[in-house]
Every structure is written in structure tokens, then in C-alpha cells.
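Morning. Coffee machine broken again, so started the prediction first thing and wrote up yesterday's gels while waiting. Chain of 187 residues, entered below exactly as on the submission form.
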Amino acid sequence: MTSYRRSRIEGGTYFFTQVTHQRQPWLCTDVARPLLRAAFLKVREKYPFDIDAIVLLPDHIHCIWTLPPNDSDYATRWRLIKSDVAKQGTSVLNLQANRSESRQKRRESNLWQRRFWEHWIRDDDDFARHCDYIHYNPVKHGFCQRAMDWKYSSFHRYVAQGIYSVDWGIEEELMPLFDEDFGDALR
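Came back before lunch.
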């Protein structure tokens, strides 16, 4: 079995990408959003963390979390969030994706990809680049013309805090530049 090496920095800030199983576009549905929100709230009660930035797209989610001091266990948080959504949502979402023999053996649902992408945020510039990536992602994928038009994003909170202007990412000189596969390791 492959050994995955992950950064484990206590009190660290991390960028994550979590993708749905077989890229099924269920995350932005009226059923899924409340389930996901409830799972985040439930997990944060027992295992606190700050959600610094987030965007929900039909088949994946990007977010930045900051963990408490002396805590580096983001994997447990993701496992609990994913399992809670699966427990509450598998029957109501009624997705038709196949479950492999391996998934059946492990009793995994057909909602999430098994793994997630993680990146430890190293400094303020790295944080700003990843926030830009998160907030520009709906535009990048063609879901809207400007970040302000996407409802499922922390972009609106950033505008209210004066971090971004309402027209951020519209004009060519304001558009963020990213490497080809920046943030999308789980295609």
C-alpha cells in the first residue's frame, strides 16, 4: 500500500481539496448543502478549527482551515465530516455511481473520493494565493462571470471585511495568475 506523507504542523493552516466520488455534481444541491454545513458544525464542536476560506462547487470543495495550537489532526476531521454527510445523505441524495468491490468491503459510500489534497500554508503570501485560488475557482470552472456571483463561497465575507472589492477578478489586470494545476491535484 502507498504511504502518503502529509504535513502535520500543530496549529497549522492548511489548504484542502476534497472531490466527490466519480466527480458527481451533488455538493451544491439543496439537499447536500445543509448536510455538509451540519457535518462541519458537528465536527467543529468536538474538534475545533477555523474555516478561513471556502468554496463549494458541484463536484469538489476547496477550503483553508487553521487548527488549534497543539493539534495537527485534520485527517480525523475530514473523516468525520465525510462519514457524517454519507450517513445522513446517501439515501436522500440517491446517487447512481458504482461502488467498487473495494468500496463495498470497506463500507464506503459513493459520495466522496477516498483521499483529499492537503497543502500546509507556509506564510501570508501563500495564504493570499490560496484564498485567491479558492475565490476565483467558480469563475475558472465557468460557473459564473465574477466571483461575486457565486453564492457558495467565503468571497462575500472577504468583501464585507474589505479584503476584496466587489469587482475583484473581473478586469484582466485583477485576474489572479495560477500554475496550470495549482490546487487541483485530485482531478
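DSSP finds five helices and four strands in the chain. Going to sketch it on the whiteboard this afternoon.
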